[in-house]
Design a protein that fits this description.
Layout: H1 7-23, H2 28-34, H3 39-48, H4 66-79, H5 81-101, H6 104-116, E1 121-125, H7 135-138, E2 142-146, E3 149-160, E4 165-173, E5 183-189, E6 195-197, E7 211-222, H8 233-269, E8 271-272, E9 275-276, H9 281-309, H10 315-340, H11 351-361, H12 368-380
Parallel strand pairs: 1-4
Antiparallel strand pairs: 2-3, 3-7, 4-5, 6-7, 8-9
Helix pairs in contact: 1-4, 4-5, 4-8, 4-9, 5-6, 5-8, 8-9, 8-10, 8-11, 9-10, 10-11, 10-12
Length: about 375
């Protein structure tokens, strides 16, 4: 088993890190304070390949391997959790469904623009006002095939990137009989008549990533906007979410790494009881624990990505990586605040933002409780 990154992966990490250090991190506090999407940085991400990581080069994407994609998202997470969430969601939730399940015509039609971000980002609309984790039984948004058009009615909530999206891939109930073969993923251009994207939610964290409610009021799209076979949407969605969990885990690793670096910097500079904080055993142990947990989480995420690249099953590994890394990040960011003391609680220092951003990670793309359900099902089978 080889734990070494390739030369290409190391070069990619350095390139993305340098970009984030220059274009993302300096504006992270401003974007958070104003709940503002960093449009300027996203305009520069397309040429670097950050908006088409899951898109093959044939369709204008970067076509990087899954480990490289995790590396990139980790680096963006290191710079700004909210910006990283939008990058991860665009790639794993907006582009991947079309890459995985779209026809050749659909890929040629939609992927090139998504890979550059020239017409906006991609978004996946799953959650509804009354439904979170129960996708099979709880989806009420309906799509009826009338002639050669889908007629869509319903609403979605807490949808990442919706206000910046050109395409909203929407999970709809297409078979009123219900059950696991009753849902479909349908591509809905955001400018379609009847689509209403509501103002961005005022969130605790990841404020640089827009989250919106959507309503579909007799929205009509062509029959060929369904991805793959109709009524297979739940299986497609679960496969997409497996990849998405790698992304959320990578963001968490990046956030924790940034928080640890801030804690180390402060502990070396700040003195208490006649010596730097870094020389006190209590602080050393907190920093050592953080370093161990970050490294373990990083390896779990890279392993899930590696299995994905090999074409092997990685559902359990993605859930394990997501569960461990997200809960790890919350603890590491909390401990960083503890090390900084009152300064850590102040918005003059970035660790309080990192903590708020990390808090979302145990909820999005399947809560920690859902991850434990996924893991237990496969361990006990």
């Amino acid at each position: 088993m080889d734990f070494e990154l390739t030369d290409e992966q190391r070069m990619w990490r350095h390139a993305v890190h340098d970009f984030c250090e220059q274009e993302v991190k300096p504006k992270a506090a401003e974007m958070d304070a104003n709940a503002q999407f960093n449009a300027e940085a996203f305009q520069k991400m397309g040429p670097l390949g950050l908006l088409g990581m899951n898109v093959p080069e044939t369709y204008g994407g970067a076509g990087v391997d899954s480990v490289s994609a995790a590396i990139a998202i980790e680096e963006v997470g290191w710079a700004c959790g909210g910006t990283a969430l939008s990058v991860a969601a665009h790639n794993s939730l907006g582009c991947s469904p079309i890459t995985l399940f779209g026809s050749e015509a659909q890929k040629k039609r939609w992927l090139p623009a998504l890979a550059t971000g020239e017409n906006g980002l991609g978004s996946l609309a799953l959650t509804e006002p009354d439904t979170g984790s129960d996708l099979v039984g709880g989806i009420r948004t309906r799509a009826e095939l009338v002639g050669d058009e889908w007629h869509i009615k319903g609403s979605k909530a807490w949808i990442t990137n919706a206000s910046e999206a050109s395409l909203i891939i929407t999970l709809c109930r297409t078979n009123p009989a219900g059950g696991s073969r009753s849902l479909s993923l349908i591509v809905v251009p955001s400018d379609t008549p009847g689509v209403t994207v509501f103002p961005t939610e005022n969130k605790m964290g990841v404020r640089a990533s827009p989250t919106n409610a959507i309503t579909y009021d007799d929205v009509r799209v062509p029959k060929d906007h369904v991805l793959g076979e109709p009524d297979h949407g739940i299986y497609q969605t679960l496969e997409v979410l497996d990849g998405g969990r790698i992304g959320i885990g990578a963001i968490s690793v990046g956030l924790a790494q940034a928080a640890l670096e801030e804690a180390i910097r402060y502990a070396k500079d700040r003195e208490a009881f006649g010596k730097p904080l870094a020389r006190h055993q209590a602080i050393q142990w907190m920093i050592a624990d953080a370093a161990v947990q970050i490294e373990a989480a990083r390896l779990l995420i890279y392993r899930a990505a590696w299995l994905k690249d090999r074409g092997e099953s990685y559902t359990k590994e993605a859930a394990i990586g997501k569960l461990f890394s997200t809960e790890m990040a919350e603890k590491v960011c909390r401990d960083a605040i503890q090390i900084l003391g009152s300064y850590g609680y102040s918005r003059e220092y970035p660790v309080e933002q990192m903590y708020r951003d990390a808090r979302l990670m145990t909820i999005g793309e399947g809560t920690s409780e859902v991850q434990r359900m996924v893991i237990a099902k496969r361990v006990l089978s």
